[in-house]
Design brief:
mainly alpha; 21 helices; 4% strand; disordered N terminus; MFS_trans_sf; transport; membrane; Sugar_transporter_CS
């Protein structure tokens, strides 16, 4: 049931200020999840509502309590995030093993590492509008299934071109998973816990890295699998197949969760949204749904994302046309003041941050492997990265005349595991300090420290130096990843976050 309140309200957080400046005081396109409690006592004060509790979205979330539902939500959404990271980072362990089967050069390895990100760029741009049309939950389930199927198909691919195609499809699915799961998770969090819980969810990326390194260490060197005729299905392919299991698992687990109440309200389905709140309240408190105090959700006129006339007109359009129209409209809004400022800053930070994060994190296992090869053939003699790379590509296993060798020594997997494990303490620090020290502190600290680590690679002369620098980089960059995810989720209005 909707009760509208046409009275003025004063925005007091970043989301509302942006929407207020963008759309003007008379706009009807304001983000549902960030509107502060209205100031009119007769409308919002529960003690002054004679027959039923009336609350806006934020207040309704708070009154559901915090408990078992949110822990289940964290577990499922965290597993989605873990699965996403496993799929991306797994390539850094696959490439040294697959170089013989797929006849990979250093250049083709670079393309295989890049293609998944090209797919993510394409997917991220489209999946957001699909989520706005069909719902967050439906899209996340579809993405997880597509992602799992693409990984399974890539494990059966017998040549470079087909493998590249399915990795692109894998990336296109992952491109929607990241933005949608973060918004979906945030839309269930009360404001006072949002920063800490988003940081907690970012820690699942570290778990993904740990799982990948551990599973790669167990499966890839085992030389399990076999071949029949021209068909080969060896250990690295089985490792890739195992990487698909989390995607199918989260697709099933997502059926346990409700649709985002914010999406339901923005779609005009307030009764369903209220029922979701009641279910959360019952799970968190153990009380009956009927005891949930909110009976009406207050929706100010400024909160309506789609006027009734506009909805009637759009009903005659196909869903595909509506989604394409939404993509164009949302893209335009990103590049007009005052959102333009935040868009440009966000693009710059994300571009530079992820060049460092993925560029180095996916490069480290290869560097561990190359330093290991140098140390074995030069009796642990010191050499910088350029010398090691020159030797491996000109005279070692990557040279044109060398016999292809896909064997990876166990030391490489151990060093990779230590590197990703180094992020655990920093993730705990981010969870405890995100709301106290602020998002900007962690982002500045992480990017500056990671930059120093990148520069320190120039002074790496042996395996130990390489491991120390890699571990420190992994630790500090994890703090930045958590803070960046929080900022993007909170700064942009819901319909523009994707």
């Amino acid at each position: 049931m909707i009760e509208t309140d046409p009275g003025p309200k004063k925005p007091h957080n970043c989301d509302v200020n942006i929407d207020h400046q963008l759309n003007g005081p008379s706009s009807k396109n304001i983000d549902l999840g960030v509107v502060p409690p209205l100031k009119t006592p007769a409308k919002l004060d529960p003690e002054k509502a004679p027959s039923s509790e009336k609350a806006d979205f934020e207040r309704a979330i708070e009154l559901t309590g915090y408990g078992r539902f949110h822990y289940l939500l964290l577990a499922v959404c965290g597993l989605v995030s873990t699965s996403e990271e496993m799929d991306v980072i797994s390539m850094s362990f696959i490439l040294p093993s697959a170089q013989c089967d797929l006849e990979l050069s250093t250049q083709s390895k670079g393309w295989l590492n890049s293609i998944i990100f090209i797919g993510m760029m394409v997917g991220a741009y489209a999946w957001g509008s699909v989520a706005d049309s069909l719902g967050r939950k439906r899209v996340l389930i579809a993405i997880s299934i597509i992602n799992g199927l693409a990984i399974v198909a890539s494990s059966f691919s017998q040549n470079y071109e087909l493998f590249m195609f399915f990795r692109f499809m894998n990336g296109a699915a992952l491109g929607g998973s990241g933005p949608v799961i973060w918004s979906y998770f945030a839309e269930f969090q009360p404001k006072k816990k949002r920063g800490a819980m988003l940081s907690f969810m970012a820690a699942f990326w570290t778990l993904g890295n740990l799982f990948v390194a551990g599973l790669a260490w167990v499966i890839i060197p085992s030389e399990i699998g076999g071949s029949t005729g021209g068909f080969v299905y060896n250990s690295w392919r089985i490792f890739l197949l195992v990487m698909s299991f989390p995607s199918f698992m989260v697709a099933a687990l997502l059926f346990l969760l409700p649709e985002s109440p914010k999406f339901l309200i923005s779609s005009g389905r307030q009764k369903e949204a209220l029922e979701v709140f009641r279910g959360i309240y019952m799970m968190n408190t153990g009380h009956s749904k009927d005891e949930y105090p909110v009976k009406q959700i207050l929706v100010d006129e400024l909160m309506h994302t789609k006027p009734e006339k506009q909805i009637e007109v759009k009903e005659h359009k196909s869903k595909l046309k509506r989604m394409m129209s939404d993509i164009v409209e949302h893209s335009k809004q990103l590049f007009v003041p005052p959102i333009l400022k935040f868009t440009m800053i966000s693009i710059t930070i994300n571009f530079t941050f992820h060049i460092g994060y993925y560029g180095l994190m996916m490069w480290f296992p290869e560097m561990f492997n190359r330093f290991d090869e140098w140390s074995r053939t030069h009796d642990n003699a010191e050499a910088d990265i350029c010398q090691v790379t020159a030797y491996v590509t000109q005279f070692g296993t990557h040279s044109a005349d060398a016999r292809c060798d896909s064997h990876i020594h166990s030391d490489v997997f151990m060093e990779s595991l230590i590197t990703v494990a180094a992020a655990i303490p920093s993730n705990i620090f981010a969870v405890l300090g995100m709301d106290r020290l602020g998002r900007k502190f962690f982002l500045v600290f992480a990017t500056f420290s990671a930059g120093l680590c990148s520069a320190a690679m120039y002074f790496v002369y042996n395996k130990t130096n390489n491991l120390i620098v890699s571990a420190i980089f992994s630790s500090v960059i994890s703090c930045g990843n958590a803070s960046l995810d929080c900022l993007i989720t909170e700064v942009f209005p819901t319909n523009l976050r994707y």
